[in-house]
Fold:
Amino acid sequence: MAVRVGFVGVGNVAQFHLERLQRIEEAEIVALCDIDLDRAEAAQDKFGGTAYTDYQEMLDSERLDAVYICMPPFAHLDQELQAIERGIHLYVEPPITLDVELGKEIKEAIQERGVIAACGYQSRYFDTVDQLKSLVDQEPIGLALGHWFGAVPQAPWWRNRYQSGGQLVAQTTHIVDLARYLLGDVAQVGAYVFRGLIRDIPGYNMADASTIILRFESEVIGTISSSCLLTSGGGTAGLTLLGRDLRVDFESGRLRIQRSGQVRESTPQEDPYLRASQAFVQAVATGDPTPIRSTYADGLKTVQVTLAANHAMQTGQMVRL
Structure:
């Protein structure tokens, strides 16, 4: 029997998931909700299902096994809780919330109701990350250096830090999560921020650049830098790890391992978005959450790191988690 899937939000990131779900035999797209009716109907024409503009109406009207929540962070209100109350399994695209207390309420509801809940940190599903994690599990790491450099996205909500949480929360969160996946939980975070060069974009009130300083519970130290200063290419996102006579570079799925003068490189052979949805659909179909690499509870830990870093940007003080 197919896993019946609905969507709340069918914007850019939802399109990635919808395209992959079409390739999974066990999944059936049955409902698509967006506040923009034209966008919902365009998705309906492309992917099938029934278009809605009211998520509660969709949840009440359709028999859903699972729902993808793909909305800007400020728009997360009670959508997850409404789905959980109905026993519907969740796939929530990050950033999952700007409100840690709401996130904790959702986490507790997930546990109490026993629903399966995945968080869309797709980087964990790169086959090259499989290699990287296997290496890091065996080799001590001392330093982590992450980055996300690019341009200001077009979405008006993204450039408003009160709606997006800022670049670290809305975008570089994927690098923070990858560092957590490989190195474990963060014990302490600090941050520095730079503003003032981007003055030509209406409604922009974000940092132009930031660097956060991390100490992991394993005592590994690291920094992760973000910037949206670029306008015409040159954007990259990745993570570098250093151990004794070991350097590992991961960027956009590509893996480079340098040790004792020898270099080994790998490129991804599988689609991480497809693997993530396959794992989620399998978990829902079988009732076994084991294939899911990022649960909602684990994703909330990543959000807490980024929001703590935002606090550190404002106060100039280190924050303990």
Observations:
- The two ends are 43 Å apart (CA to CA).
- Residues 84 and 110 are 7 Å apart (CA to CA).
